[in-house]
Amino acid sequence: MPDRNQKDNHKDKIRLVVLAFSGGLDTSVILRWLQETYDCQVATFTADLGQGEEVEEAREKARALGVKSEHIFIEDLRTPFVADFVFPMLRAGARYEDLYLLGTAIARPLIAQRMVEVARRLSADALSHGCTGKGNDQVRFELAFAALAPDLRVLAPWRSWDLGGRQALLAYAKRHGIPVATKPSGAPAYSIDANLLHVSYEGGELEDPWHKVEDSVWTRTQNPQAAPDEPQDLCISFVAGDAVALDGKAFSPPDLLAEINRLAGHHGIGRLDMVESRTTGMKSRGAYETPGGTALLIARRGLEQITLDREVMRLRDDLMPRYASCVYSGFWFSPERLALQGLVDETACPVSGEVVLRLFKGSASVVARRSPHSLYSEQVSSFEETSPDPAGGNAPVAEYRQSDAEGFIRLQGLRLQLWAEQKRSLAEDKGKK
């Protein structure tokens, strides 16, 4: 297999590079740097994952930087993003380090997949991204490239150029007339990543974990203290583990996520201030907003309580950290994630029904749930004595006899009795010495 990160000694062989392009400071500088350093053409790929107006801004920025119109690719990927990436991940209940809902991580494999498709269409020589040499995204992109296009070279400017930081990039942008977004003070804006699932904020003052996240930073959620003083009940319908309707109204996957983002965000749900363990070995502080994803995970768990067998749920939950680590660390296109997905999807089959979720001042809680596939039996679990219908009409398939509990407890306690006897014997032996 060729060296995927060949650089100076093979510059003359680069004809066309496909660059993951957001139009921000990093990728704008990288676009120009690739053109100058490799004397090559650059095709830009921008994914519309629900981040908003910046998509069209990226088109104009690419044109201004000399990219041919036929080499500017902008794709609306909102439907496959939610249906084929976010929803499968939510079926696993995935949370990295038990908190982070993986909003940035889950977007990278889809972008990488489409970049490879564009590269094949154009017969490009290489793929490139704007990830720094310290972050997770370089790993995520390049592991996806390794799985999908091991023959293509990967150019990672942050690991090879002499522009050591944001200030150097700003100076480069100024020299080349590249406009960048800044704060009024002139300092670079927060590093922001947005899509339908979440918004993340990193850099600037947030690099100090003692610095509190200012309320002005958040854009998708209302301050819980300022949220409505009355709770709102939202009925979410699920089919085989995926949300399909809100309050009885059917939505497409991206529209449903957008709507529940709006509702949950209005009630201040889904904020997270976290210091996480990066794949590259360091700690990193980030602020995340995931209102819809947070609400959906809580609602789904409520439905699983009545539809999933106890041991199946435990098995899925035991494997959840492994699944989350696959997503976080860039192994979406890996045999282990695919194997885990098969198990996750199988467990999701009975998770159909409705959940009433109460949204109130930063919290979402399940207040009602029902399912045509419920394992819950009122006759079995009721504190009241129930008698089977002689005709069989109301007789439960599984009958619980309270007297059976005595033998069950005796068997469960057998090893504890033997252990207690062992401890007594050991204590006697110790006393004889």
Question: What are the defining features of this structure?
Answer:
433 residues; alpha/beta; Rossmann fold; Argininosuccinate synthetase, chain A, domain 2; 2 domains; five-stranded parallel beta sheet; five-stranded antiparallel beta sheet; 12 helices; 14 strands; 40% helix; 18% strand
SSE topology sketch:
Blueprint: E1 16-20, H1 25-38, E2 41-48, H2 54-64, E3 72-76, H3 78-91, H4 108-122, E4 126-128, H5 137-148, E5 153-155, H6 166-175, E6 191-194, E7 199-202, E8 232-239, E9 242-246, E10 249-250, H7 253-266, E11 271-277, E12 283-289, H8 291-307, H9 310-328, H10 335-348, E13 353-360, E14 363-370, H11 378-381, H12 404-432
Parallel strand pairs: 1-2, 1-4, 2-3, 4-5
Antiparallel strand pairs: 6-7, 7-12, 8-9, 8-13, 9-10, 11-12, 13-14
Total beta strand runs: 14
Number of H- or I-type helical stretches: 12
Number of structurally distinct domains: 2
Oligomer: single chain
CATH architecture of the largest domain: 3-Layer(aba) Sandwich
**Compute the gyration radius: what is it?**
27 Å
Structural class: alpha/beta
- Strands of the largest sheet, in order across it? 3-2-1-4-5
